[in-house]
Amino acid sequence: MEFGDVKVLGRTSKQSPFVLFWTGSRYEMNVRAANLSVVVAASFGMHEQWIVVTVDGAPVIRMPLSFGANEIAILRNRNPEREHNIRIIKETPVMPNDGDPYIELTEILTDGEFLPVPERKRKIVFIGDSITSGEGACGAVSEEDWVSELFSAYDNYSYLTSELLNADYQALSQSGWGVLCGYDNDLRHNLPDHFKKVCSIAYADGPERPVRGAEEDYDFASFDADAVIINLATNDGNGLTMPPFSNPVTGEAFQMKPGEGTFLSKECTEMFCRKVVTFVSDIRCAYPKAKIFWAYGMLGNPMETVIRTALTLYRDVTGDEMPEYIALPAATEGSYGARWHPGLPCHKQAAQVISRRLSAMFE
Question: Selecting from 3.10.100.10, 3.10.20.310, 3.30.470.20, 3.40.50.1110, what CATH number does the domain 122-362 have?
Fold first, then answer.
């Protein structure tokens, strides 16, 4: 379906440009109207897809979508001469093995007119895990349930950073996943292997299948990033606390192991570094002009030395001066959110640190 001046931000396929998968993906429109409603279709298994709707930058609706079509009234009895900016933001990440997780804008009902949405000054890509998915960014500190309600793309350092820099952004993130392996030591649970697809995480650990274009190669030229922020490795480090994982298909077993006097063993460090070199090389190929940064530390920094070693290896191998490392402030007693994850105060601190660093690079 065509919607003229509706701007879609987030990875989509050419065949289904209004289907959103990733956290922070959104529809944006400028309208002059008294009344406006939208119909958004949602697909999932058990975990509802949540959205937040902003009008002129302020959140006015936050809600779960029912499976199937959802009609949502956004403007009612407004001044028909006034222009409004509306964003419909996907709050919920891809939940593991939960059907075909996506939302799709299917209809707009309005008595007004659409106006062009101006392009923003910069374009940024964020790549991360549960922190970038906004897990625990909303909800009480005492909350520990695994539910989609406790994720937020709005109260999130990626959204906040982009607002500070007047930038459009994309986010690729998955809770529990890492660079080499997930927190569970599953080598399949890594972001690098999914980087080149629209959203192949949509079919999780199962065989590849069509999911509204999620399995297609992504067209990187459609979003020419000025900067890429990688916020990964928290879950790689968490693998040290978990038992070995055995791949049910291949029987291969793996576990992150500590070294003698070092955080990771020599073997695990080498595996991690090789993965980083390949991953950053793929990012550089996809975004030739981008400033690349590795930002880390919102849930502590035990992997910092390993990350810095990997980045040095990449620079030595390729001659690329990037990525640079950004140390992020860790969540503390006053800045935690739900599920022992960073809360809004910590996300705001991270956004300030990243935006200052990028502002200096962009000048």
Answer: 3.40.50.1110
